[in-house]
Amino acid sequence: MPAKLLTGKEVAQKLDQDIQKDVQELKAKNVNPALRIMIVGGAEDSVFYANSAKKMAEKNGIICEIEQLPAETSQDEFVNILKQRNADKKINGIIVMRPFPKQSSGGVVNHFLAPEKDVDCFTPVNAGKIMAGDMTGSPPATPQARAAAGMADQTSTRPVASRFMTCIRRQASGGGCKAAACKRSGNGASRIGSNDRENARRSATC
To answer: Which of 70, 94, 92 is CA-nearest to residue 82?
Structure first.
């Protein structure tokens, strides 16, 4: 079979259309989808990602607010603020940006984010369910994660259940989320970390 260049443009357009349709259906029910992106400190890549996510959300009719806290914010202070956002009924989804300043642990913070508002699938509840194939968990809703599964659907003629994808990223938050999204859609998936590059070169992708 000849090689095919995957740009993701068609998948991105389809995702936008699906999201816009879902947003309109929610608004018809008097629900205004709202996303809160939380950043501790001013890491340039985190701010860039947050601004890009805000632009994408607003393009699709979703209210999005970036909440940037001082770099010296303690873990306890952040957790208390996060609990307030969990309880805010006007906020439907929360993204907590990584990395954290040295005084905070993402592993600890993950336990305090409400699973029903966990956009990135970082909470132990959602991550555990999705990786175990439990469809009651909330999958990662990031565009990259959804696109990974979407591109498989558009480029493979094999039955969904017989596919296997390999996600190669440096962090669990990258490859792990994409692997979870692929499993959610019915594809087999694994994640290869930055220390497994030799294995990655030997792995087949669908």
So the answer is: 94
Alpha helices in 6-141 (DSSP H): 9-28, 44-59, 75-87, 106-109, 124-131
Q: What's the rounded Cα separation, in Å, for the pair 166 and 182?
A: 10
The residue behind tokens 């336990």 is 111
From the candidate CATH numbers 3.10.20.30, 3.40.50.10860, 3.40.50.720, 3.40.50.300, the one assigned to the domain spanning 32-119? 3.40.50.10860
Task: Note whether 6 and 151 are within 8 A (CB).
Answer: yes
- The predicted-structure confidence for 132-170, as pLDDT tens digits, reads as follows 878 788 877 765 556 666 666 665 566 555 556 565 555
Residue 64 scores a pLDDT above 70: yes
Best CA proximity match to 57, nearest among 9, 20, 91, 28: 20
- pTM comes to 0.74
- Given a contact cutoff of 8 angstroms between Cβ atoms, the answer to whether 189 and 179 are in contact is yes
Mean pLDDT of the chain: 78
Helices (H), ranges, 115-196: 124-131, 143-155, 177-184
CB atoms within 10 A of CB 102: 7
